[in-house]
Amino acid sequence: MSAIDPGSTRIAAEALAGALSELRGLLSNTLSDADYAGLQAPTFLATVGQHVRHTLDHARALVAGFPEACVRYDERERGGEIETRRGLAIMELAALEAATLALGDADGATALIVEQIADPLRPPLRCASTLERELIFVMHHGVHHHAMIAAMLRSAGKTPPDEFGVAPAPLASRQP
Of 156, 38, 21, 6, which Cα lies nearest the Cα of 100? Predict the structure, then answer.
């Protein structure tokens, strides 16, 4: 079985790689090392670096889980240098961009099991999904965190790019 829409797996992979690239650009061109590791607006419970790490975790889980057909988003390493070292995050973003683009050559209808905690008092659920669906999920999840980073930057008097953190549907609605 193949993807429903021809070329849609490539589009989904490019969308995720594009979101990772957009984040890499923000880290490279807009943020200082101090902003990355320490900027935490009063209404947010995480630093910019922690939001970036979380975004990387999801992309990393998808890339690592694809070969075994089981994605485990909750198995991630909280903390660590990736939350405080902007340069390290920039390098990992570049590597994950390439890895997600490579997934665009796979069959998007490839069955995946997503193992994730839905209730902290119960074992993780194992749900059926596809590569294409997970590419789209990870992209949207990342954009959600981009929006929080953008809000944090604005609250600190900084100016992120206008479209940073805006989901694809609102961007599409702005097209003539």
Answer: 21
Burial class (CB in 10 A: 0-12, 13-18, 19+), 9: buried
Structure-block tokens of residue 43 = 């209404």
What is the average per-residue pLDDT within 39-53? 82
Give the separation between CA 55 and CA 143, rounded to whole angstroms.
9
pLDDT in tens, 107-118: 999 999 999 999
SS3 28: helix
Q: Exposed, middle or buried: residue 86 (CB in 10 Å: 0-12, 13-18, 19+)? A: buried
CB count, 10 Å around CB of 85?
16
- Please compute Rg for the chain using Cα positions: 16
| pTM exceeds 0.85, yes or no | yes
